[in-house]
Please model this.
Amino acid sequence: MQNDSDFKRNENKQNKDGNQPNNSNNKKILLGVLAFALVSTFLLNILMTSFSGSNMLEIKYSDFITLLEKDAVKNVEIQNDRLIINTDVSKIDLPEAMNRFNKTSEMVFYTGLVGDTELVKTMKEHNVKFSRKVTNSSPVIDFFTSWIMPILFLYIAFSLIMHFAAKKLGGGGLMGVGKSNAKVYMQKETGVTFKDVAGQEEAKESLQEIIDFLHNPDKYIKIGAKQPKGALLVGPPGTGKTLLAKAVAGEANVTFMSLSGSDFVEMFVGVGASRVRDLFKQASENAPCIIFIDEIDAIGKKRDGSMNSNDEREQTLNQLLSEMDGFDSSKAIVILAATNRPDVLDKALLRPGRFDRRIIVEKPDLTGREDILKVHSKDVVLGDDVDLHAMALATSGAAGADLANMVNEAALRAVRMGREKVLQEDLMEAVEVIIAGKEKKDRILSPKEKRIVAFHEVGHALASALQKNSQPVQKITIVPRTMGALGYTMQMPEEEKYLMTKDEMISEITVLLAGRTAEEIVFEIATTGAANDIERATKMARSMVSQYGMSDKFDMMALENTENKYLDGRNVSLCGENTVAKLDEEVLNIIRSCHKRAEELLVKNREALDKIAEYLYEKETITGEQFMEILKEVRGEDEEL
Ligand code: ADP
Ligand code: ZN
Ligand code: MG
Model:
């Protein structure tokens, strides 16, 4: 395995920013108490009626008539829905009733009312006393208890259920429908300035004008210049888009209101739209301010009118567009949005007067990384040997968030080691942890496996050292890591590169394939350990042919397009089936020739391969210098590499 230049991001959600959700909790608590009181009175009522009814037995109406005819009934009380029947025990022979009542002198039954027009007559005939209580409640109270109360009860119960369900889903609940205030994070002062954002100079420059406008809107209005309404921050995750938006608010000294695009998307149609309305209303009350919509792609996707188009999302987007067009331009409100999928955004969002400014927030280059490391190690006690430049070199492809994370990991490691300062080894170990995961000390490879891994890794390292165009080896290790690598070879570029030549790509593919090739040469086996190498080599070979015009067969023809390049970067084919087949063939050719090249290199240097692998097997980790020493020893000092 080789070190991955694509850093896996450890998304560390930071809530330390002191964001205060400004929601109306008090109202909710009040409602909750009210609902609780109502529910408990209802429950109590139900309980009491069922208790009082427990010494009565329900009988069939026909049984009641039988009792009547046997003169067993003493008196009857007619109620709204039932008859309460007092009987004379001595005249009853219902066995079920006997069991239950243990023969008290009187027994009470009840039965439902049947539209029996003869009832009064029959009761009179058998000398039964009957009566109906006069209810002294007014029709108003009746109406209240029989209509309003149940409806109120149902409403409250329902909304409570919805509230908790929605809370579980991360929403604001039915009570909060149409209210964005549960979601808007408002900060009067972000406390973040451009000083906290390292690198990203171009982005800062573009944002400077917005800051100036917020500082001094009159200057712009006087001259008749239209204010910049919105800017879109575009770039991969973790590059500091949110941080920049906050810094703009901090620099301009205005309120920062933020909301994530996914917060708008709710299960009820219309909710998102009303949230947008609320948001803008709130903003105009808090002007001057910045509205920051994170992950705007969640609502701003192209309205393609396809089958599964989402009505709710479209409504929300339309509302956002019309609010952006409509809001009072003399009010100092600027809308910033961030996305890492600019390609999916609806064109309407990018029209003039909306997010017409696009600010690219790229992954940092070498200097940028060094600066970010400096910002984040400002409050960390560093040892004298710390070389942030070297660390920046080793972290090509890392975003700001990764670097911040690494510095913290290093500090934690220093604490674990009982040191008071962070040393370079802490920092470099942190780099490895982020790339390959933590060392997995408890995972024990069998000696046989360990040997295979050792040869595999030295295969990579040798292929790298023996080719002109590749990067020097920094470290080789066969200590397994938590992210699945059984070992890896870490390479470190001498300088940042923006372009890769065809030769360099061929060299790199050869290095990737050399791991498995070493296994083949030494053990005459193939193992599963090379899967990641193979995947990356294939990807690289494919892009050479399909995107970089580096094959003779297709010359400079583009066969594939990269979609979504700030995230996983899926490739989309641009050509017909026949061509795809030929493309595959061409990719295979490249892989084959690189495989052969790796084989030649390793066979020719078999002695070095054996020696270094045995040494690695014994030591488990060796440095680039140790590696080069043995290699030079075997090959002889003067031999050109
Ligand atoms: P994004 O919004 O682009 O995904 P964030 O702004 O949330 O990225 O960045 C996450 C964290 O990474 C920040 O809080 C900060 O600690 C760190 N970070 C990212 N970029 C930079 C940078 N250019 N300078 C300093 N810190 C950065
Ligand atoms: Zn490998
Ligand atoms: Mg963000």
